[in-house]
């Protein structure tokens, strides 16, 4: 399954064009390698996404072509979530 479709179906990112844009800017890593939106995702892959000042690491548990909102969280496990503070200038 394509990365952008996985992010949308799992509801990690709500819209596929947004997932594509984030991936194509190099802000997503799969197994510690920069991933494009067309990169294939497989069960067991580790995904790291940088959202501004937040970095989320996920493990892919399941692949589905479509899901209900309640079942979307079963597609991945959150491994870690870190917040970084930006330097403040006085």
TrEMBL record:
It comes from the Bacteria. InterPro entries: RqcP, S4_RNA-bd, S4_RNA-bd_sf. Residues 1-61 form the RNA-binding S4 domain. Pfam families: S4. GO terms for biological process: rescue of stalled ribosome. HAMAP family: RqcP. Belongs to the RqcP family. Key component of the ribosome quality control system (RQC), a ribosome-associated complex that mediates the extraction of incompletely synthesized nascent chains from stalled ribosomes and their subsequent degradation. RqcH recruits Ala-charged tRNA, and with RqcP directs the elongation of stalled nascent chains on 50S ribosomal subunits, leading to non-templated C-terminal alanine extensions (Ala tail). The Ala tail promotes nascent chain degradation. RqcP is associated with the translocation-like movement of the peptidyl-tRNA from the A-site into the P-site. Associates with stalled 50S ribosomal subunits. Binds to RqcH, 23S rRNA and the P-site tRNA. Does not require RqcH for association with 50S subunits. This is RQC P-site tRNA stabilizing factor. It comes from Agrilactobacillus composti DSM 18527 = JCM 14202. The lineage of its organism: Bacteria, Bacillati, Bacillota, Bacilli, Lactobacillales. The gene is rqcP.
